[in-house]
Amino acid sequence: MKMVDAVRDRDYWKKTGITLKYSLRCLSKPFDSFWDLSHEHRGSKSAATILLILTLLVNVCDLVFTSFVIIGPIDWNYVNVFQTMATLVIPLMIYVVGNWCLTTLFDGKGKLGDIYMATCYALTPYIIIKVPLIVISNLVTGDEGVFIQYFDVFALIWCGLLILISVMMIHDFSLGKGFLALIFSIVAMLVIIFLIILFFSLITDAVSFFYSIYREILFRFY
Fold first, then answer.
1. Where are the beta strands (DSSP E) in 14-69?
2. Rounded distance, CA 120 to CA 104, Å?
3. Are 88 and 56 in contact (CB under 8 A)?
């Protein structure tokens, strides 16, 4: 019921629009903006989720509408849109959890929600740069397409720098400590992925074991 009321609340959407617009300020003044994002409550998780959804849509549009001259031919029989989205959402969520776990040990001040919010806000350059690149890709030749690839790399580097700054500001870290926290967060991601794979592997082995026992019982008694 509360969710329905929030959807119908005009003030809720007005606040979401203001906090969504604040993502643009993170591009020009990232240090002050990421500090204010959580400490001054200038951001919101709803706006962060919208930015994440926009990133997913842009990622799918890049796959569908970017000229084949740039990305090459695609066999659509093996393309799964949900899997494409999952390759972005799952690592992002694992990063958020890993960063929260590590920064807690580093005496970080950011909460789990703050890390999620700041990380999504850091994706803003990808959205802004990628949309015009998709359009331009259909207007250039193969030789000119190399510039589009340069801008792709530039967008990813910009996002990476914003994520680093977000770690520094959210947790009140210095540059060196923020960089180390980011590196160890990547290590934590690998550990979490390993534990997830190990967990499902054990579950699969356990199911197979009990299923083999079940079949053996059926074979002996029936």
1. none
2. 20
3. yes
Residue 192 has which token pair?
A: 């979490």
Contact 183, 89 (CB under 8 A): no
Phi-psi map region of 107: left, alpha, beta (phi>0 left; psi -120 to 50 alpha): left
| Long-range CB contacts for residues 7-12, cutoff 8 Å, separation at least 24 | 12/46
SS3 29: coil
Instruction: With CA atoms as reference, report the closest residue to 94 among 170, 169, 191.
Output: 191
pLDDT per residue, tens digit, the chain (222 aa), is 455 555 566 777 888 888 999 999 999 899 999 999 888 888 899 999 999 999 999 998 888 888 777 776 676 677 788 888 888 999 999 999 999 988 888 788 888 999 999 999 999 999 999 999 988 888 877 677 788 888 999 999 999 999 999 999 999 888 988 899 999 999 999 999 999 999 999 999 888 888 888 787 777 766
Domain ranges across the chain = 2-221
Burial of 220 (0-12, 13-18, 19+ CB in 10 A): exposed
Integer angstrom CA distances of residue 130 from 51, 60, 96, 209: 13, 11, 23, 49
